[in-house]
C-alpha cells in the first residue's frame, strides 16, 4: 500500500495568516463615476458570494434599498457602463469586469470613539472613454 503525502504549502506562515484575516473581514464596496467624490459614492457591504467585478457592480448598483440620491448616482454609473468604451478603476488599478474581487481588496480601518474596525475596501470608479480629437474646418 502506498503512503500518501500531505501537500505542503510553500506560502510563508505570516502571509497565510494575513490572507485568512483579510478574507474574514467584511468587504465594503463603493461605486461612483470618475468625477464623483468618494464621499458621495454608492456603498454597500458585499456578501462573499459576489466574486467578480461584474457581480460586485451589479450588486452595489441594484436600485433596491437605495436612497434617491444613491439611485441617481447608480443610474449615472450604469450610463457610463452603457458607453461603447469605458474604464473601471478599482482601488487605483485598472480592472476588467471578469477580474476577481479578491485580487483588488485593500485592508482599511475605521476609527470611531475608542474603537477600530478593520474592513476590506473595494472602491470602484467607472468612466466612459470620451471621444475627442482634432477638428479641422
Compact description:
The protein has helices at residues 13-24, 53-61, 68-81; strands spanning 27-33, 42-46, 86-90, 93-95, 106-112, 115-128. It is an alpha+beta fold and 137 residues long. Strand 5 and strand 6 form a beta hairpin.
Task: Describe the SSE topology.
Elements: H1 13-24, E1 27-33, E2 42-46, H2 53-61, H3 68-81, E3 86-90, E4 93-95, E5 106-112, E6 115-128
Parallel strand pairs: 1-6
Antiparallel strand pairs: 1-2, 3-4, 3-6, 5-6
Tell me about the biggest sheet?
6 strands, mixed
Mean pLDDT: 84
Low-confidence stretches: 14-20
Tell me the β content: 25-35%
Overall outline: globular
Oligomer: single chain
Structural class: alpha+beta
Can you tell me about this structure?
With 137 residues, the protein is α+β, with helices and mostly antiparallel strands. The protein is built from three helices and six strands, in the order αββααββββ. The chain has helices spanning 13-24, 53-61, 68-81; strands at residues 27-33, 42-46, 86-90, 93-95, 106-112, 115-128. Strands 1, 2, 3, 4, 5 and 6 form a six-stranded mixed β-sheet that branches. It is globular and about 65 Å long.
Amino acid at each position: 500500500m502506498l503512503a500518501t503525502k500531505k501537500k505542503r504549502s510553500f506560502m510563508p506562515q505570516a502571509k497565510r495568516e494575513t490572507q485568512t484575516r483579510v478574507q474574514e473581514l467584511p468587504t465594503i464596496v463603493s461605486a461612483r463615476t470618475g468625477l464623483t467624490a468618494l464621499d458621495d459614492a454608492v456603498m454597500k457591504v458585499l456578501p462573499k458570494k459576489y466574486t467578480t467585478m461584474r457581480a460586485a457592480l451589479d450588486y452595489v448598483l441594484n436600485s433596491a434599498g437605495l436612497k434617491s440620491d444613491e439611485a441617481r448616482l447608480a443610474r449615472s454609473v450604469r450610463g457610463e457602463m452603457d458607453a461603447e468604451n469605458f474604464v473601471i478603476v478599482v482601488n487605483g488599478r485598472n480592472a476588467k469586469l471578469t477580474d476577481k474581487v479578491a485580487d483588488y481588496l485593500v485592508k482599511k480601518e475605521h476609527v470611531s470613539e475608542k474603537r477600530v474596525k478593520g474592513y476590506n475596501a473595494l472602491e470602484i470608479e467607472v468612466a466612459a472613454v470620451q471621444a475627442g480629437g482634432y477638428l479641422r474646418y
